[in-house]
Design goal:
This protein is α/β, with parallel strands linked by helices. The protein has two domains: about 120 residues, Rossmann fold (3-Layer(aba) Sandwich), CATH 3.40.50; about 90 residues, OB fold (Dihydrolipoamide Acetyltransferase, E2P). The protein contains eight helices and 17 strands. Helix 2 crosses helix 3.
């Protein structure tokens, strides 16, 4: 697996969260815990701040339930593992398409099996929901200019028009989006996830670490390797493999 499954834990009892955190740290190295919540509203706030892959969700949350949480949010591209002390919730959990259902006290072997299911399902996904949405709109070329890309940062999910993106720069498993107004957004997704999407909007991958909007190109500097000069004065390296492709942009 290329990356850990980003997860949140939702339970109204802090000691249950502590126990589950311990089990995940001890037995499930595939999981990265992005945060915990004790109420439905806290969970909603966490989901607004994090693009998660998996939720460990208690069903009995005091005056509300885990099902209330799922009803209140627009279902994102995450899986759900229900965790509860009440076996009678099992059928209802299945109706909410949970990937698995764990009874408290959670047993390590059952937790590992549930996490393995989540990992396998995640590995079969080639596109998350926002990418699927974008591809559907790209099929309708007349609607392209109206589309905006959802970019999830640590603080918000920003809707950005492709024409306002000057370039993208890889930073390990993160991508920096440099916008026309000078703003830089750090997104917790690798650059390759955006290359295919932005190609149809005039972007070119000139380097392993750089994706550039051709609308902002000024010139190709004649160096040994080649350097792209942007209208804002920035210089972007060109890789040896991409040199001929980049040169073709400046020839008739």
């Amino acid at each position: 697996m290329d990356r850990l499954l980003k997860s949140i834990l939702v339970d109204d009892e802090p000691h249950n969260i502590s126990n589950l955190l311990h089990l995940l740290e001890s037995y499930c190295p595939e999981i990265e815990v992005a945060g915990t919540a004790n109420t439905v509203q806290e969970a909603i706030d966490l989901l607004h701040l994090n693009a998660v892959d998996l939720i460990f969700l208690d069903i009995d949350l005091g005056s509300e339930t885990g099902f209330d949480l799922l009803k209140k949010i627009n279902r994102q591209n995450f899986e759900v593992i229900f965790v509860t002390a009440f076996s009678e919730y099992g059928i209802k959990a299945i109706k909410f398409s949970a990937i698995d259902y764990l009874l408290k006290p959670v047993q390590p072997d059952e937790l590992q099996i549930a996490v393995k299911k989540a990992v396998e399902k995640n590995n079969t996904k080639t596109q998350n929901k926002q990418i699927q949405s974008l591809l559907q709109i790209l099929q309708n070329q007349q609607a392209k200019e109206m589309h905006r890309i959802a970019l999830p940062s640590s603080k918000e999910i920003r809707l950005v028009s492709p024409e306002d993106i000057v370039r993208c720069e890889s930073n390990n498993n993160y991508t920096r989006f440099h916008l026309r107004n000078g703003e830089i957004l750090l997104i917790s997704r690798p650059i390759y996830e955006y290359e295919g999407l932005l190609n149809d909007y005039g972007f070119i991958r000139c380097h392993q670490s750089h994706l550039v909007n051709k609308a902002f190109l000024k010139s190709l500097l004649k160096t040994d390797q080649g350097v792209l000069l942007l209208e804002n004065g920035e210089q972007i390296p060109v890789s040896k493999m991409k040199k001929d492709l980049v040169k073709s942009l400046f020839t008739n």
